[in-house]
Amino acid sequence: MPRYYVNNTAQANGDHEVHKEGCRWIPFIKSKKDLGIHTTCYSAVREAKKTHPQSNGCIHCSKDCHTS
Ligand SMILES: [Zn+2]
């Protein structure tokens, strides 16, 4: 099962993106929080929202959890 991370820095629209390990965007994140191991991105986003209420799945690695 993959590990997920949330970007501590918000996007321009206020979203904190949730990424799955191995996502090509992770190396560009300055500060991220480890969300632990999750079966799906849904529980990862739920966990991320405890820290950043406006969390959203990354459109590249967690498309199922991405809402626009
Ligand atoms: Zn991603």
Short key terms for the protein model shown above:
68 residues, alpha+beta, four-stranded mixed β-sheet, 1 helix, binds zinc ion
Question: How would you characterize the overall build of this protein?
Answer:
16% of the residues lie in helices and 28% in strands. It has one domain. A hairpin with an 8-residue loop joins strand 1 and strand 2 (16-20). The protein has one helix at 41-51, and strands at residues 3-7, 16-20, 32-37, 55-57. Strands 3-1-2-4 form a four-stranded mixed sheet, covered by helices on one side. The protein has 68 residues and is of the alpha+beta class. It is built from one helix and four strands. The protein starts with a strand and ends in an 11-residue tail after the last strand. The structure holds zinc ion.
What is the element string, with H for helices and E for strands? EEEHE
Separation, N- and C-terminal Cα atoms: 26 Å
Total E-strand runs? 4
- Count of discrete domains: 1
Portion of residues in beta strands equals: 25-35%
Rg, alpha carbons: 10 Å
Question: Can you lay out the helices and strands and say which pair or pack?
Answer:
Blueprint: E1 3-7, E2 16-20, E3 32-37, H1 41-51, E4 55-57
Bound molecules: zinc ion.
